[in-house]
Amino acid sequence: MNSLAKLLEAALFASPRPIPTEELAALDPESSPAAVQSALDELREHYDVDGHGVALVDMGGGWQILTRPEYTEAIERAQMAARPQRLSAAALETLAIIAYRQPIGRAEVAEIRGVDVGAVIKSLHERGLIDVVGRAEGLGRPLLYGTTGSFLEQFGLRHLEELPRVDELAIALRKPGYEEPAPAAVEPPAEASIVEVLVEAVVEAEAAGAE
């Protein structure tokens, strides 16, 4: 591994958050963007080819060294790492609506969910999953909310475009080899990813809002 790759590895190991490529490039101003990208590719290959327990992951607008998913449960079970606090169903629904409809105001989210969402939005904001991204036009110019880089990081997304499109939800929620059953026989995936949970939440919330 070349010296630039080792330098990037040291910075990524020390950082608790994803580091954008531009910030990594600042570690060695004499290196070109191509050299930085080449060093990142070398570092990722180093972890993948040699079968390490960690991997270099592109997520949340930056790069981070993370434990491979297959070892996460054992490490959490041994209490060697803090388990992320789970979101309630109400929080997931609200977060999903904001993720798909951003920028969006509190009143619109409440209209879709059919309940007041002030406390849930406050909680999501305090956890850094959403933030104020602007103000709507009109009376009172209400605050508009959007998801944050921390949202991408916690849900393992590189960017919002990785969320399944709403018109692809029926396909996105299927398992490989899934065959179309009668509607009454459809069951949710046993091991739904958090993205799938988000998708399912927004579908249910929108269906409830349409009734």
Description:
With 211 residues, the chain is an alpha+beta fold. 47% of the residues lie in helices and 12% in strands. A 3-stranded antiparallel β-sheet has the order 3-5-4. A two-stranded antiparallel sheet has the order 1-2. A hairpin with a 2-residue loop joins strand 1 and strand 2. It is elongated. The N and C termini lie far apart (59 Å).
Q: Which percent bin holds the helix content? A: 40-55%
The sequence of SSEs as H and E is HHHEEHHEHHEEHHH
As laid out across the biggest beta sheet, the strand order is 3-5-4
Largest sheet: 3 strands, antiparallel
Question: What value does the average pLDDT take?
Answer: 79
Total E-strand runs: 5
Shape by Cα distribution: elongated
The computed structural class is alpha+beta
What value does the Rg take, in angstroms? 20 Å
Number of helices: 10
Unreliable stretches: 171-178, 180-192
Determine the N-to-C terminus distance: 59 Å
Strand content: 5-15%
Task: Summarize the entry for a quick read.
The protein has ten helices and five strands, in the order H-H-H-E-E-H-H-E-H-H-E-E-H-H-H. The chain is α+β, with helices and mostly antiparallel strands and 211 residues long. It is elongated and about 55 Å long.
